[in-house]
Design goal:
Two copies of one chain form a homodimer.
Chain A: E1 2-9, H1 26-38, E2 42-46, E3 55-65, H2 71-81, E4 86-94, E5 106-114, E6 128-129, H3 136-144, E7 148-151, E8 166-177, E9 180-187, H4 194-206, H5 214-220, E10 235-241
Helix pairs in contact in A: 1-2, 3-4
Chain lengths: ~240, ~240
């Protein structure tokens, strides 16, 4: 059996999704819960790696196991076995060849900025606190240049081994709700640290400390001309489409 | 000098506001930060005790110390010394006789219910997860009976030594935002566990498992006829008025 699970996790206490020796990961916690629930071997495949501290509203993974159990019971049972920081929100049975990573058509990320000097205990590790007032309209204008099919090499962490750095961004938006700014971006794929580097670039452009415009930064295909890498705390995998 | 501080805290990691030996409290953390910041003895007086696990959006305390420092600098400095779970949101200089508890005119509490079977990692310890669907309109109708000056003995934890159990409730409301229900109540004062017992009573009335109506429960002045004590996780001190 192959189950497609949609999960949410608070990434603050995890060293990302992907298995690591001697570090807590969401994949390890999910695999342990699945093997305990199904009382049989179970392999858990995620839709993407995530960095340490990154969150997910709707991450997708698929679980392969020998046992057949109704999806509703999988949701209930898994949630009794998972820690508070991870929750299964939905489950469906999918064909044996469904693969959470390879079959993904697009993803949407959100990046949350707490735009004030006053900390919020309820957003600690869940947003990037940035005190200097940001102009959301300018952020939205700059972000709109990303839409379309571009070579996004400027927004890939240096050292990444990916060769084809062309991706298609479908949509961007920047919205303010009080002190909380949410930058949303959907694309057919993302390079390593792409959303965090784009966020840092939007902030640098806002503060007038970037040497080039967003259009130029895209065209230059050079990591050094883009902005800083915003911290993982504000990043959420919001949706994965198949 | 006497400073009035408005603070927010995530109560999940604290055994309430009030000093305790061998248990982490918000008062201890605030006192330690104040003494370190003012580099002088400082006494921190809170507007009320809070139970272990209870949160605050805007708790008020006053800090007495010998040192005179501009309020803005107090906010900034205290926040660099406090853990992520506590934040100073505002500070003002007040007359020497200002007392956070005695001078309080009214308070507003919020109680958050996550009304679904699916856990939310971002609301773990921050809302009461209650799976059975609740009728918010009926909750609001029942809560409205509380408005006015009444003897609220039915909603006081047994064992409390308070003799005068009459309080004036100014306003109540119950609102739903997706799966999250927020019950709000403001009053000139609250008895021990009053909001949590009222919340449990609203839920029991909703599910038809209460033997009496809200009006009868108020009139009977008897803890045993009211509902269960809802857990601390969902309770927030939202505002304190002077």
């Amino acid at each position: 059996m192959n189950y497609k699970l949609t999960i949410a996790f608070d990434g603050a206490s995890f060293s990302g999704w992907q298995f690591q020796k001697n570090a807590p990961t969401v994949q390890a916690v999910m695999t342990e819960a699945a093997q305990s629930f199904f009382t049989s071997p179970a392999t858990v495949t995620g839709c993407s790696r995530t960095d340490s501290g990154v969150h997910a509203d709707n991450y997708v993974c698929n679980v392969k196991t020998e046992r057949t159990i109704p999806p509703d019971a999988v949701v209930r049972g898994m949630n009794t076995l998972l820690p508070d920081s991870v929750a299964v929100k939905g489950c469906e049975c999918v064909p044996e060849d469904f693969h959470a990573r390879y079959d993904c058509k697009s993803k949407e990320y959100h990046y949350k900025i707490l735009n004030t000097n006053i900390p919020d205990p309820f957003l600690a590790h869940r947003a990037y606190k940035f005190g200097t007032k940001l102009d959301v309209d300018k952020m939205a204008e700059d972000a709109a240049y990303l839409v379309g099919t571009h070579d996004f090499a400027s927004f890939m962490a240096s050292g990444s081994k990916i060769v084809d750095t062309t991706r298609t961004v479908f949509n961007t938006s920047v919205e303010r709700d009080g002190d909380l700014i949410t930058f949303s971006i959907s694309a057919d794929g993302f390079l390593y640290n792409m959303v965090r580097i784009i966020t840092g670039t939007l902030i640098d452009l806002n503060l007038g400390r970037a040497k080039h415009s967003m259009r130029e930064i895209i065209e230059m295909r050079e990591r050094s001309v883009a902005g800083f890498t915003a911290p993982p705390d504000g990043l959420y995998l919001f949706k994965v489409n198949y």
